[in-house]
Amino acid sequence: MFETITSFLESIIINFRFTDFIDITIVTIVVYFVFKWFRQQTSKNIIIGISLLLLTFILSQKYNLYLTSIFYQAGFTVLLVALVIIFQQDLRRMFDKISAWSFKNPRAVFEQAPIIIDVLVETISQLAKDKIGALIIIKGREPIHNHVRGGIELNGKISLPLLVSIFHHDTPGHDGALIIENGIVTKFGVHLPLSTNLQEVGQSGTRHTAGLGLAELCDSEVIIVSEERGTITNASQGKLVLVKSAADLKERLTLFFKQTGYFGTIVKKRNLVTGYLSIKVFALFTAILLWLLFAFRVETIQRTFEVPIEYRNIPDTLLLDSNRPSKAEVNLTGPERSFDTESENIVISLDMANVKPGLQKVVITSDDINGSTNLLVEQINPQTLKIITYKLIHAILPVSITTIGKLKSGLKLIELTTESKSVNVLIVEEKIGLIDKLKTESLDLKEISEGGVFSLSLIIPEYVKLISDDEKVVTVSVKVK
To answer: What proportion of the chain, given as a percentage, has pLDDT over 90?
Structure first.
């Protein structure tokens, strides 16, 4: 047993790659955020159930439980739709969090944040003292307008008289909520969603239920003043907390403003390393387990691939026959996981620097196969290639302008010339005399309505090579009347 474990650990160390480290790191980060998100939701029992289903599915795939796998495959689509329906609010919250990452608060709020906090503390304390019910929402980084309904537009500056007058018994909007965004009272008389978490709400009234309902859906800070008891309650991150004093309220608002960025910089709640440490460790463990189950496969297998052949370093004085072999079959052995990452990059690269003119044989060796770092070459078919190369000699070929069609009625061709009368080329020695000129691509005369200058590409025959690619395009001058 000990030897088996030791052998397994040695195989991990030997086959572990830097890409595996990146792979595990990315999955750890994703799993961490998913776990952290799930941890904050109220439907934990459903999450536990889904986790058990996923664990069963993983085991069925690992140990080839055929019937269980068929059952999961048949019900996967239905399960996916059901999850979207069940977690539609949670999914919306997740996307709201993502969209809030680029949120930036105006510079004016940075300067006025301490004043805004003092006004809010004074106003809320006054409302509690006079037992005037109030529901005040301070928007965080996430959008809230998808969660609220109704309300009256205001866009007013925060002040004690304004807030007190809005929540006074005789005003029509005193029963609704007031929204503060970027230091401005944007709306009042707003209706909020009611929480279904009766355990958290307890004996509290509708205002507390509504405040908690919004705090469960976004990162807004909600302050609730009880009309019956004259108490102040803070609803935040799905929790209701009784505020003990004005100093306590100021401390909570100041921390919220800092965490949200209203002071110009965002203060994180927890340390980057030790914060949510248990979730981070669990996420790392889960990522490693998934890697071991699905990615780490060290079984040696054998496969055959049709691999492209590239010919490099061909001397300028030689031309390779166009009918040369372009592919060969290569039989490889190695870990299964290496085939997944390397098979598409394999190529046979032949160095032709030492070839001679004429028919010759080129032997492919394992050293000529690139892109198979962790794979061993067992067989190459064909291993010996028959290659024909031709000796090239210098020649000067005249340029011939090719035309099609006829000029439009009433036009007459006066002159058709090219600046490049001839081109320097390298030509297969045996083809001298058979190829006596280079033709241009066709110039359609029926498209010409007046004289002008045109650029035409040369058509290069199979046994000819240009000395300079700059000469491939020639300039043609057309004169008509």
So the answer is: 31
